[in-house]
């Protein structure tokens, strides 16, 4: 595997993780990056780099971010976002990975892209419900700000410095896995 292929895989993983925080921010970022010539999308996903897609992703991003600032509505959005984040992670990974066979690309997109997005989304859901319970929802806007900022930062890093984004995602996955395992293990002990 050459270095360029590895970079596109790391880019896809970074974008997928970003979609676990917010679904539409990574799409908006890659749309902008494609339109400005900073990113070349796979041919079948070139529609992401069009002005209609840019406008759609921009509006969806604003609505998604706004929705997460409304306590308890944000918990409902997390429920909806969980399966959608997995699909977004798959699409984001498949849209940037080049130089490998379609079978390998889609297998990687489903397992790595969808898996990473799902794990990060599960972590954000647990974080939000914990914030809702412990603060009555008053802490949720702070959680939302961190999540949106994380999605934007990770999306940009995935495009411009994919190796660093990959390292951050690995660290996030280790932390998320430990957090989720501890959360569900402690629930089983109290049941």
Descriptive overview:
The longest helix is centred in the middle third of the chain and has 34 residues, at 102-135. Helix 1 packs antiparallel against helix 4, helix 2 (24-35) packs antiparallel against helix 3 (51-67) and helix 5 (102-135) packs across helix 7 (162-190). The protein has 7 helices and no strands. It starts with a helix and ends with a helix. By secondary structure, it is mainly α. It has helices at 3-21, 24-35, 51-67, 73-96, 102-135, 140-160, 162-190. It has one domain (3-180). The model has no long low-confidence stretch (mean pLDDT 92).
How would you sum up this structure in a few lines?
The protein has seven helices and no strands. The chain has 191 residues and is an all-alpha fold.
Task: From the structure above, extract its key features.
globular, 191 residues, mainly alpha
* Low-confidence sequence ranges: none
Gyration radius from CA atoms, angstroms: 17 Å
- Describe the largest sheet: none
How much strand?
Answer: under 5%
Number of domains: 1
Order of helices and strands: HHHHHHH
Tally of DSSP helical segments: 7
Helix content: over 70%
* Distance between the first and last residues' Cα: 48 Å
Overall number of strands: 0
Which class best fits the helix and strand makeup? mainly alpha
The 3D shape can be described as globular
What's the mean pLDDT score? 92
């Amino acid at each position: 595997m050459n270095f360029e292929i590895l970079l596109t895989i790391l880019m896809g993983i970074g974008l997928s993780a970003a979609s676990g925080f917010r679904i539409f921010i990574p799409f908006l970022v890659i749309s902008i990056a494609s339109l400005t010539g900073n990113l070349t999308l796979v041919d079948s996903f070139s529609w992401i780099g069009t002005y209609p897609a840019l406008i759609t992703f921009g509006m969806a991003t604003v609505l998604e971010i706004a929705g997460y600032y409304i306590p308890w509505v944000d918990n409902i959005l997390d429920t909806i976002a969980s399966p959608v984040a997995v699909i977004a992670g798959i699409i984001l990974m498949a849209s940037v990975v080049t130089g490998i066979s379609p079978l390998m690309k889609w297998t990687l997109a489903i397992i790595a892209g969808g898996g990473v997005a799902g794990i990060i989304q599960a972590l954000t859901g647990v974080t939000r419900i914990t914030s809702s319970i412990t603060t009555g929802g008053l802490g949720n806007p702070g959680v939302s700000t961190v999540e949106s900022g994380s999605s934007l930062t990770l999306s940009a890093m995935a495009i411009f410095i994919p190796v660093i984004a990959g390292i951050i995602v690995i660290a996030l996955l280790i932390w998320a896995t430990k957090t989720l395992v501890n959360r569900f293990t402690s629930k089983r002990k109290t049941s």
